Amino acid sequence: MQAVRSATHPSAAGHAVRALLFDTFGTVVDWRAGIVREVAPFLSRHGISGRAEDFADGWRERYQPAMQRVRAGERSFVRLDVIHRENLEDLLVAWGAEPGELPAGELDDLTRAWHRLDPWPDAIEGLRRLRERFVVAPLSNGNIALLTNMAKRAGLPWDCILGAEVVRAYKPDPRAYLDTAEVLGLAPSECMMVAAHNDDLAAAASVGLRTAFVRRPTEHGPTQATDLEPTGAWDHVVSDFVELAASLR
Q: InterPro entries this protein is in (predicted)?
């Protein structure tokens, strides 16, 4: 990991921002297009009727409720890969399929579709520019293997892999943000959360992180109705990572 260096962007507490922490699904990578791409042939191959877009949306809709069981203490922490596999099987049942009758290897491979998502067009160039002055790392609910495989495939230039599995807490649990800052040896105000989701930024800001909202108006497809604009007084509001790099000069 590169040395943690100060930058000339003081926070309200007087600390310079030294690390940029990125939500990943939807902010760095286009999860919906990637999941649709891999779901479509799977549904066709097994004669499961329905649109791949609807299947992808249904899989994603199970994401937060499943993690909430961990946040609420109803179950011990498990990796997101485990949650994705459980949600896939639950979704297949809802679509009239029987997971036990499908090849386990295919279900394993489809679960790993979340490891093979493509970055938004600006992501790699923007991260490279930002990495010249800041530590850049994911602060994602994704697990270490998932985020590492994604970065290797897509060429995401992270300095290190951080997130839920490192701190054993899923966002927006305050520990996800505070313990990540602590892992880096930084105060919360020395870290900036970068996300396309207002609720993520609100949670980060509530425990002292700086914030940057990135517009991703097609994360949920062409009819997206959420997170089109900032809903809080975030420190930066930009259209992409390249613009963020310019605003932090």
A: 2-HAD, HAD-like_sf, HAD-SF_hydro_IA, HAD_sf, PGP-like_dom2, S-2-haloacid_dehalogenase
